[in-house]
Amino acid sequence: MDKPIYTITSDRDERVFVHAMPGHFISSSTHLNCYIGTSDIKHNHNVAVDAAMLMAQYYNERSIKVNTVLCLYETQALGAYLAHELSRPNMFNPNPDNDVYIVGPEYDTEGNIIFRDNLKKLISDKNVVILISCITSGKTIERAMESVRYYGGRTVGVTSIFSAADSIDGIEVNTIFNKNDVPGYEAYAPHDCPHCKAGERVDAIANGYGYSLL
Predict the structure, then answer these.
(1) pLDDT greater than 80 at residue 65
(2) Residue percentage of the chain with pLDDT more than 90
(3) Could you write out the DSSP letters of every residue in 125-170?
(4) Which helix (H) or strand (E) holds 174?
(5) H or E segment and range at residue 61
(6) Of 99, 112, 150, 196, which one is least surrounded by beta carbons within 10 A?
(7) What's this model's pTM, rounded to 2 decimal places?
């Protein structure tokens, strides 16, 4: 696949960036005309630290208390930096009195997020922020919210690197990049995909971990 790759920089911090690659991509529930690459924010220490600071501002400015960050799709390192920012003193909360936990998901055979007995206490009766790299349809977040409710927790925030959705289940998405940052970005239901209707081949299969060329 010989496609151009564009770098998109945050207007709040030029050190935080993603990559955009136009094409025909398919995920589990949608078809996309652009792949958003978030690997640098997830795997580069310096970029992740700066991104976490941007993400934390949302909760600090609104005085939203967070107990646990639930990290989806390899965002545990980013989640740790976010937890650090949320738990340290700042102008809105000069004397924080809580620890912030970081937990990754385990899935059962039906694809539901489950928590073992030793981790249930990190969700039950806790204020949970769900962290993910990219949001398209929001279905992954909805399932994560269901799991948090099942284990007795409260989803108080949804945070992403990129999101095509403004809110999910009544909760505003706290995101660094959105559709306005990627001109022409579109996500389609499989039966409405114009690329498929035009007979264009699929370039790659994509999910929260990355993409695989076809």
Answers:
(1) yes
(2) 84
(3) T-EEEEEEEEESSSHHHHHHHHHHHHTT-EEEEEEEEEES-SEETT
(4) strand 171-178
(5) helix 45-61
(6) 99
(7) 0.94
